[in-house]
Amino acid sequence: MENKGSKHFNGNTPGLYIHVPFCLSKCPYCDFYSTTSISLIPNWLEGVIEELKIYKDRFSTFDTLYMGGGTPSLLNPNQLSTLMDFLFRNFEFSPDTEITIEANPDDITQDKLKYYRDIGINRISLGVQSFDDRALQYLKRRHTSRQTEKILGWIRAAGFGNLGIDLMYGFEGQTESAWVRTMKRALDFRPEHLSCYQMTYSPETPFGKMLTQGRITQMGEEEERTFFLLTSRFLEEHGYIHYEISNFARDEKHVSHHNLKYWRHVPYLGIGPGAHSFNEGRRWWNIKSVFDYCRMLSKGYPPVEESETLSKEQSDLEMLYLGLRTVDGVDPGLVDKQHQSKKIIGELAESGLVKVHAGRVIPTRTGFLVADSLPLLFLN
Ligand code: SF4
Question: pTM of the full predicted structure?
Answer without folding.
Answer: 0.94
